[in-house]
Amino acid sequence: MATPTTNVTPAAGAARAAPHSEVAHDAGHGSFPPFKPDSFGSQLLWLAIAFGLLWLFMAKVGAPRVGGILSERRGRISGDLSEAERFRNEASAAEQTYEKALADARRSAAKLADEARQTMAADFAGKKDMEEAKLAQHLAVAEKRIAAVRDKALGEVGAIATDCAEAIVAKLTGAPTRDEIGAAVASSMHLPGTRR
Amino acid sequence: MADPIHQFQIETIATLGKIGNVEIAFTNSALFMFIAVGLTMAFLVLATGSRALVPSRWQSLAEMTYEFVETTVKGSAGQEGMRFFPLIFSLFMFVLVTNFLGMIPGGFTVTSHIIVTFALAMLVFLAVIIVGVLGHGFHFLKLFVPSGVPGYILPLVVLIEVISFLSRPISLSVRLFANMLAGHIALKIFAGFVVSLGAAGVWAVLSPLPLALAVGLTALELLVAFLQAYVFTILTCIYLNDALHPGH
């Protein structure tokens, strides 16, 4: 190493510092810089100042600042998560309520339908019975009337036939008795009556 | 070839005076300490400027750094260790940034000086003793008496424990110092080979070899720069854990 490198003193302090400089210079060539004790004082002083400054900064500004941001974020995230959890619980509760209401509505609708069906069936059966009874009554009346008409008609048939036969016999034979004619009519009427 | 030791030279920027017999000067080392501290502060303040809920890249980086150290502290020293988080975070950032600044060509590696790493290690050592004595008083000495050791062997074990405790600041400081020093020397030597071989006529064809090595070493040194900061931090946490829970 040709160039002097140790303790380059500024011009202002050159005169005063020159002897020290020379000594340091010689020592600099002879020994290893990290083991030269003449620089230890300065290094320790500046280290104390610089590191003390950094420590103070970290304690007052650096660590609280970054730590604050981080804890804020962690708090925000956990807060958001718990809020989301709460919303989910609410939603599932609402869903349960809805399902329950739906089931209730279904059940009551089924009940209503059932009741309506039963009422209708009972109503229908009652009406049917009534109509049938009415019909049967009408039928009975009609049958009775038919029977009456028939009996009347049958009753008149004898008289008509008697008159008719009387007229025919009178025309053919003179004047038969009324009793003879009546007996003849009765016997002839008996025949078709049994045949029927 | 360039002197591989030259990069560790302390150069005075301004002489300020004397305290007793000790000359006090603002040096390149002090300059890089303040650059590291300034960069760390600027990084943490500017990156978190928006305090965004969804972080930007820079904010994400600041948060990752914070959480990395937080995990280390909580993992090694428990929740109580978080009381010392500002100190541990400062140590991590200071060592990390000074290590990385040393990787910049022309830069100065503050942590390549044993006095700096030893001072930081002593800070940790004293913090452990103060925290331990304040927190547990006489019981802090239980740290040296592991439970479940037979009586006849106990003196020996206690002696070993005391020696290992006292050697902590030395191992802590020498580990960091030696790693940075050795790495930078190796890097410088291999980089010097490239130049020497390049100027050596026919031998210039071999110069890519040390160049490739220097490139690889640079990557390795970046890893070491981070790793040593992490090792320093995690050991600090483990030592603090001893002070917080001395019962083994």
UniProtKB/TrEMBL annotation, chain A:
Coiled-coil regions, chain positions: 84-115
Gene Ontology CC annotation, any one: plasma membrane
UniProt-annotated stretches for the region Disordered: 1-30
Assembly information from the UniProt record: F-type ATPases have 2 components, F(1) - the catalytic core - and F(0) - the membrane proton channel. F(1) has five subunits: alpha(3), beta(3), gamma(1), delta(1), epsilon(1). F(0) has three main subunits: a(1), b(2) and c(10-14). The alpha and beta chains form an alternating ring which encloses part of the gamma chain. F(1) is attached to F(0) by a central stalk formed by the gamma and epsilon chains, while a peripheral stalk is formed by the delta and b chains.
Role: Component of the F(0) channel, it forms part of the peripheral stalk, linking F(1) to F(0). The b'-subunit is a diverged and duplicated form of b found in plants and photosynthetic bacteria.
Family: Belongs to the ATPase B chain family.
Residue intervals passing through the bilayer: 44-63
Membrane topology: Single-pass membrane protein
Localization annotation: Cell inner membrane; Cell membrane
UniProtKB keywords: ATP synthesis, Cell membrane, CF(0), Coiled coil, Hydrogen ion transport, Ion transport, Membrane, Transmembrane, Transmembrane helix, Transport
One protein family per Pfam: ATP-synt_B
Protein name: ATP synthase subunit b
Signal peptide (UniProt feature, chain positions): none
